[in-house]
Amino acid sequence: MATNRTTTKSTPNTPDTTEAKPSTMSRFFSRNGHDKTTTPPVKPQGPPKSVWREYFESAVITVIMALFGMTFIVQAVKVPTGSMQNTITIGDHLLVNKFIFAPGRSLPFLPQREIKRGDIIVFKYPGNPYDPKRDDRPDNRPILTNYVKRVIGLPGDHIRITGEDVIINGQAIPEHRIHATDYGDLTIEKKDAMARKLFPDASPRDVHLENAPLEVPDNVPPRNPNERYDVYFTKPEHAGVSFADSEEIIVPADNYFVMGDNRDNSEDSRFWGFVPRDLVIGRAMFVYWSYDESAPPSGWGIVFDFFKNTRWNRTGTLVK
């Protein structure tokens, strides 16, 4: 007897999700048609660096870069005297470009050039062969002391000085002459009176007017177009020039004749001779900080004096 049976074929249960397979494009860009294999991360060898070690390594790198920069690129110098006033004042801190006058052949694609007349250079003091006793001062040692002056004579130039005129190769060089007052030349009575005028709340003995900039009158005529820089005269007789008015000197090869812009208060090539090329450090660029060393202390400490006596208006001033 036949019975009606319905046989149902059992199928295994499959999940609802569908497995993602790589596309043909991904296989096309894979190497040799195979899937890329990921490399497990490699753990660093040795113990982990401490915070102090990281600080130490950063400090060492910073010091090395600073030494490289100070040796070949820039150098910071402080101006302690007034021989370049008022172009550069006492208390100015300058950055010097050491790369521009680097020895050797200048390449056209590098910011290098030869020294020109009118450049303000920083150099190692060559010493005074005419008066060696002046080199015994601790602040005026040959080679160890840095000077800042303006280049007046180049190698081969014939130079003669007559009063206020500097005659080079038969022609007076154009300079903007200003007659100013040097507070350091005043008598004690006049100096005390000026100190009370400038700093009425301070005692005159705490004011150092010999470190103050020159006082320039208000009626100074403007520069002519051919006058590139200012020079200052404070003494009517312009005493102290070593070369006689009729004497002419010739600048030797690889040497320079330099003078301070404060012509009556500058020991320069008029007194001790020429500056050899290999003693030139670089060209003065700008003032990065200036402190008024003539101002009296405030009595509130060094920090307060820093903000009070800093010449903020000179920060960033180009030296030219």
Q: What is the C-level CATH assignment?
A: Mainly Beta
List low-confidence stretches: 1-20, 25-29
Return Rg in Å.
Answer: 36 Å
- C-alpha end-to-end distance: 126 Å
Order of helices and strands: HHEEEEEEEEHEEEHEEH
Describe this structure in words.
The chain has 320 residues and is an alpha+beta fold. It has one domain: Ribbon (Umud Fragment, subunit A), CATH 2.10.109. The chain contains five helices and 13 strands. The N terminus is likely disordered.
What topology emerges from the helices and strands here?
Elements: H1 24-29, H2 51-72, E1 74-78, E2 92-97, E3 120-124, E4 146-153, E5 158-162, E6 165-168, E7 171-172, E8 176-179, H3 188-198, E9 230-233, E10 249-250, E11 255-259, H4 269-272, E12 275-276, E13 280-290, H5 302-309
List keywords for this structure.
320 residues; Umud Fragment, subunit A; four-stranded antiparallel beta sheet
